Structures are given as structure tokens and as C-alpha cells.
Amino acid sequence: MNGALPLIDLHRHLEGSIRTSTVLEIARRTGHPLASLADPRAALVADEPLPGLLPYLPKVDVAESAQTTEQDWARSAQSPRESR
Ligand SMILES: [Zn+2]
Fold it and tell me: To 5 degrees, how large is the angle CA 70–CA 23–CA 25?
């Protein structure tokens, strides 16, 4: 393999693909601590590549923890993040 190959999505996890605005909408409604952070977007989004998988996991975990009901998950599934 060489470095010229394009990156592709093999699969996506819903909890890592929810729009930031949707996670925050749910967090505000449920009183999740994410809603009271000074910069909640920074808790959810990696603007630059991170070194390996582990630094991404807290961002996915916080998005998942804001989902409290089946309706939250249904709402989130309706607003997947757009591909870059
Ligand atoms: Zn996976």
C-alpha cells in the first residue's frame, strides 16, 4: 500500500455521526452536563486529526451519553452528520 490511496468509510457508528446541533438540542432538553459546558462543540468534534483511536472515544461517548430515550436515538438517526 502507498499513501496515495483515498480514505473510505467502511462503516459509521450512529453515536459518532450525529449532528452537533442535534446532540446539543437533546442535551439542553434533558439537562445533560454537555449543555452547560463553555464550548460543548469541542467536547464533540475533532477539528484536526487526533493521534489514534483513543482520543476520539470520549467525543463519541459524550454524544452517546446525551441520548436518554428511544426517541432521542430516533431523532439523532434522522440528522446524521454530512460527509466531508
Ligand atoms: Zn466500528
Answer: 95
Residue 9 lies in a domain: no
Check: pTM over 0.85? Answer yes or no: no
Contact 19, 79 (CB under 8 A): yes
| 52 CA → ligand 1 middle, Å | 14
42 Cα to the center of ligand 1, angstroms: 22
Is 84 part of a structural domain of the chain? no
pLDDT in tens, 5-57: 888 877 888 888 899 999 999 999 999 999 999 999 999 999 999 999 999 99
Q: What is the number of domains present in the chain?
A: 1
